[in-house]
């Protein structure tokens, strides 16, 4: 609602008082600036930044839900799903080069790698939250996330976002999406 009002106000001032909807072309220049800034950083740094963002989403959502429900294993499945979606979109935009695959195929490859990485993360989390970190489930979450990050980075780098073999002018492995 607030975003619609802001877009209408911007459109109204640009169109001489008449409200005009804002187009994607008007938003895109700021996204290009973000991509250009991200390209200055090495890919592992971008991956860590995206991972930290996903971890912040996971941890904050987990902590908020834990205040009302006390089923950490079920709650973590929910928060892990949300964080995974966030990191897929951010990694696709800022971390890895174009794979030149249709988005749905890339998403399936991402899901396969993420399932392996998140299964590893969840197994570590579950083992720790049911034993040594029962008193502090957030520590179990962080430990699992760290182990899962190693699996995730290499899987995404080598499989999910690897250049498609038949792609014309496929980007080299360290390249970033344009």
Task: Describe the overall structure.
The protein is mainly alpha-helical and 178 residues long. It folds into two domains: 1-40, no CATH class; 41-178, no CATH class. The chain is 72% helix and 0% strand. The chain has six helices and no strands. The protein has helices at 2-14, 24-39, 43-66, 72-95, 103-129, 137-160. Helix 3 (43-66) runs antiparallel to helix 6, helix 4 (72-95) runs antiparallel to helix 5 (103-129) and helix 5 (103-129) runs antiparallel to helix 6 (137-160). The longest helix has 27 residues, at 103-129. It is globular and about 50 Å long. The two termini are 32 Å apart. Residues 1-15 have low confidence and may be disordered.
Describe the secondary structure blueprint for this structure.
Layout: H1 2-14, H2 24-39, H3 43-66, H4 72-95, H5 103-129, H6 137-160
Characteristic terms for this protein:
single chain; 178 residues; mainly alpha; globular
* Helix-residue proportion: over 70%
Give the count of helical stretches: 6
Number of extended strands: 0
Order of helices and strands: HHHHHH
* Mean of all residue-level pLDDT scores: 80
Shape: globular
Portion in strands: under 5%
The multimeric state of the shown protein is single chain
Terminal Cα separation, in Å?
Answer: 32 Å
Number of domains: 2
Low-confidence stretches: 1-15
Largest sheet: none
**Structural class of the helix and strand makeup?**
mainly alpha
> If you compute it from the alpha carbons, what radius of gyration comes out, rounded to the nearest whole angstrom?
20 Å
